[in-house]
Design goal:
The structure is a single chain. The chain is built from 3 helices and 14 strands. The protein has a 12-stranded antiparallel β-sheet with strand order 1-2-6-7-8-5-11-14-13-12-10-9. It has a two-stranded antiparallel ribbon with strand order 3-4. A hairpin with a 2-residue loop joins strand 7 and strand 8. Helix 2 packs antiparallel against helix 3. The longest helix is centred in the N-terminal third of the chain and has 13 residues. The model has no long low-confidence stretch (mean pLDDT 94).
């Protein structure tokens, strides 16, 4: 199922929503975390008016979300003059798989506008070699994304680099939405994996997004870029940050993630 088809499968069920996730979105024994977060956002979006834009999304992956039917509960925690706070729970096999908190805010007048500084001299996506639709040993969900490596190394290559710069886009012709971008941010491998010399499992524990831009009018095949780096890594946990650039080159999303690494 394409990403857009999976989102479209979400239907009301009792006081919640039901969705169907295909095996092709698997990441090991669980579902790709970006899909889980996108579905949680979609459920909260059913309760929040569109003029309140997604400002922040916090996800805790409590357990694996399995392929097949999932149940998503959502509620509004608070409505203010400009900001709505919502909460969602994703259930899989009758267990909570993820909890999410969404912060949605209308624009405010301000005299301050600052964006992250970005490095210069990064090659354009069209000048970089194409990546196979699915690497032989890669997780199934990779078939839904296209990648170009500008900097960094392949997972499990024993690199000394603690950062990467990767271009990404959906292999789906449907129009982009904020949920499409949520999934894009999570599709690259954790940076810590390129420093390992042999394959080892990993799992995201917490994930926080902050949206800086809300322009989704780009073509579905336009390239987004994710500049990621390791902030710290010790005792089996890696804390990583990234800046996501939209196809116009503007910083659009900030991401911070804690990853458990079993190797």
């Amino acid at each position: 199922m394409l990403f857009s088809q999976t989102l479209a499968s979400m239907q009301p069920q009792d006081s919640a929503w039901a969705a169907l996730i295909g095996e092709d979105w698997s990441q090991g024994r669980a579902t790709f975390g970006g899909m889980v977060a996108a579905l949680g956002n979609e459920a909260m979006r059913r309760l929040v008016p569109p003029d309140r834009q997604l400002r922040g999304l916090e996800t805790i992956f409590a357990g694996p979300t399995l392929a097949g039917a999932v149940r998503i509960e959502a509620e509004v925690l608070r409505v203010g003059k400009a900001v709505t706070i919502a909460h969602a729970r994703v259930w899989s096999a009758e267990k909570i798989a993820a909890t999410l908190t969404g912060t949605y805010g209308a624009p405010r007048s301000t005299s301050i506008s600052l964006l992250p500084s970005l490095p210069a001299g990064v090659p354009e996506a069209q000048h970089l070699p194409a990546i196979p639709a699915r690497a032989p040993a890669g997780p199934a969900f990779l078939q839904h994304f296209d990648f170009r490596w500008a900097e960094g190394a392949w997972p499990f290559s024993g690199s000394s680099l603690r950062s990467s710069k990767i271009y990404v886009r959906h292999r789906d012709s449907a129009a982009l939405t904020e949920s499409h971008v949520v999934a894009l941010v999570d599709c690259i491998p954790s940076v810590i994996l390129q420093m390992l010399s042999t394959p080892a499992p990993s799992s995201s524990l917490t994930w926080t997004l902050q949206f800086l831009k809300h322009d989704y009018r780009f073509a579905p095949d336009a390239w987004w870029r994710i500049d990621a780096e390791i902030d710290s890594a010790a005792e089996g946990y890696s804390c990583e940050s990234s800046v996501v650039l939209d196809p116009g080159g503007a910083p659009a999303v900030l991401s911070r993630q804690m990853v458990a690494v079993f190797g």
